[in-house]
Amino acid sequence: MERITRFRAVALLVAFALLLGFFSVRMYAVQMLGAGDVVADSDTYTTYYTVKAARGEILDRNGNVMVGNRASYNLVFNNFVLTNSDDPNGHLLRLVKMAEQLGVTYNEHFPVTWTRPYEYTLAEQNANWQGYFQAYLWELDIDSDISASRLMEALRDRYKIPEDWTDEEARAVIGLRYELKLRTDITNLSSYVFMEDVPDDILNAILELNVPGLDAQATTTREYYTTYAAHILGTYGSIDKDEWPTYKELGYKMDDKIGKEGLEKAFEEYLHGTDGRLAKVVDKDGNIVSQYYVTEPVAGHNVETSIDLNLQIVAEEAMRDVHESLRASNGTDGGGNGADIEGISVVVMDTRTGEVLACASYPSYDPATYNKMYNELMADPLKPTRNRALMEAYPPGSTYKIAMSIAGLETGAISRYSEIRDDGVFTKYPGSSPKCLVYSRTGGTHGYLDVAGALRVSCNYFYYVLGDKMDWDDVDAVTKSLGLGEHTGIELGENIGRRANLETKQKLYSGSDAYWYAMDQVLASIGQSEHRYTPMQLCSYVAAVANKGTRYAATFMKRVVSSDYSTLVEENQREVLSVTNMSSETVAAVFDGMHQVTSAPGGSGLSAFRGFEIEVCGKTGTAEHETGGSSNGAFVCFAPMDDPEIAIAVYGEKAGSGAYMARVARAIMEYYFNTDEASDTVTYENRVG
To answer: Given this model, what pLDDT does residue 632 score?
Structure first.
């Protein structure tokens, strides 16, 4: 008798354990895996909704919100209420017809074309959605090899679609029934969001239909609070098929949204919050009996960038003004140089930290209307969507002469006061006789010049001679350490360009064209040949010169804080990427020459900075290119001379002259240092007087 009692007790415990295990597994599936809806009893249903976490804001360094969130509504389905209504198919058809009438689209992933002859569209979907479709067929006991046409016939029968409905009506309702079925007992997808960010008028029109189970759910939607900085703020959207494997590994759900480009993408790990899970217990009529959070949503962090939005605005408007002025000149301004200008880009950097204060390309666009205006933007011949500052690599022209001067002084090829006579035409190598620009225009020369004077008037002949007498490996090493042809450290994708050297020629050419000839070295010395650098690299380069050789990593981050600003998550720590040896003599000679560019008679940047109260060190550049038309124009600078704070690089495609680009830099410095208005006159590089 005692053994029977013990046996019954053990059996009872085992049965209890199995029952407990069953309910534990079921609860885990509901709460953790999100397995749709779970019946609580015969009269009520518990539905689990994903509550999207608010994305963090993107702000400028002064706390101005550039990208944030606004309150919005999504339309979300409760399948239990719909399927227990009097006519589920009829309600769904009314909903679809209203959407068509209002001209709005809705979310739907059923992988079959909308018209006969039906075909599958699985190839357009990622692997997970393809898997969901296979699971759907398995759940409905349908052969996975069934044709699309046979499947439509089977589903019309299964969902009892009336025979007098058109093919399009049946296809529309089947698509919605598919979405709802996936979320009940097949997948771990969250509740079916029929439509996102619904405008008030459309929301009211749809809700007036009283479709059972369709509710308005409060959420947030990404919002741009500025029309500026479009090329760096980036875009935000759904995960693509090619992106899904990466984000799946990071724990994202397939219907999550992510930063696609720009700062939205670069700082995704901070901006992305953690979604919550809300349980709603409803009766068959859709009345909420109770609701509670299984897990509460956690908002993403706010990213305070290094950008000064007001400075960004000044930079973009200055670029626009110069661009419009040159385009309108029609041959009357400087002989037509720059009248065919295509685009301008600018980067402004804090020399002391590497923080980017402004980064812009022109022409630009309104990021809020990017998707709506996409086709028009792509058709624009001036290519307003191009991020010229980071992704376009250009020949630097005479801005490269700063690096040449440093290399020459540091290797002893020249000293601060040693002079080279400008003979106008460099005739050392037969078959090629490059000229100094002033000789080409006037037949004159600059005479004897030291390095500061050569920088002031941008004498090509001086640098032909200097480059020819140097070991190019020494020049290339200085160029590399100053950051040209190297990653700047910036968080966004960038074109790293290339330095003119033997390695580059061997990558680009074959046969005898791949050799590094003496004339390659001569032309490379004035910033031509195979040099290609981005405006971001040019700004990092001139900032390193301002720092007497120390190059900091470029960054868009100031700090990251929690959504309520109570906690500092991360703060930018300046990082040294490289150091270039610059003796006091080298610094004095280069700074003096660059200062003369903007302050002394004959200085190629004098016209733009005449009367400016701050001592500016600058260098113009005019570069030939392969596409015809006016030459490209560049200008780099830093200020103040005695204690540099900011560095600027401006580059204009077919701008004609680097002196035009100095106008943009002047406007930026006017704002930064709060001084007088800039001059409108232009002095050509290499022009005497």
So the answer is: 95
